[in-house]
Amino acid sequence: MLTRRITAGVLRRVSDLAYRAHGGRSTWRLGVHGTRQLDALRDLEHRFGLHVRTVLYVGANRGQEVDLLCLAFPEAVVHCFEPQSECQDDLRVVAARWPGRVEVHAVALSDSVGEATLRRPSSHDQAASLLEPGSEMAVQFPHVNGWAGEVVRTDTLDRWAAGRTLSDDVLLKMDVQGAEPLVLDGGSETLRRVRLVISELAVVPTYDAAPDMHTMFDRLGGLGFRYGGELEQVRGQDVTVVEFDGAFVRSQVSGVV
Q1: Is the confidence at residue 224, as pLDDT, over 80?
Q2: Spatial CB neighbours of 135, under 8 Å, sequence gap ≥ 6
Q3: What are the residue boundaries of the Methyltransferase FkbM domain, all occurrences included (predicted)?
Q4: 117 in a domain, yes or no?
Q5: Given a cut of 50, is residue 22 above it in pLDDT?
Q6: Which residue segment(s) compose the domain that 185 sits in?
């Protein structure tokens, strides 16, 4: 275990230096907030004895957190799933900073293979969802408006993962605006390989049919994950917490030798 931690520390340092050598310092600055996120991710891996080598980043948007994930987990391949056509170019630019480590998949992960209508606002594309915005959206986030539909391709996590090599340990990061159950429904087999889940949790759901935090705790608990802690908060119009990112860890990979 000690050797593994020393090796991981060396790889993180090499990753940091390589990123700076390729212009990372000028193209993306961690800042205080980003440094805290980086420390939190590394703490999760260290605290639970994980060795993340595959990241499934569902809802990657324009790649705002790709650099963070690559730095936090320097041996990991990061698979980015993002269906929005307007985000693809920016996401691929970020991915190109990490040759051989980041793959972009222009698809929405859901519970079925085919097509679906993605609801996206004109003012804030990070709020795009396969679900309809609910009444609380206008209350909590009045600046998120101008909603329109975009037909996107859908796939299930299990179908996508079939025949692919996903090196352990696997991290599933979901940023899908209330559509987390759809991702989980379409990935029951793949989830057996996942050791760490990072997911948005809604204190106040802002999308129709979106689960609240209690429902997600029960769902992930039923899949064998334990709560590992809070990572980040989003506050609404009245500055109370509307949603936050929660980490869930599985002590063993289910059914995998």
Answers
A1: yes
A2: none
A3: 58-227
A4: no
A5: no
A6: 2-105+156-249
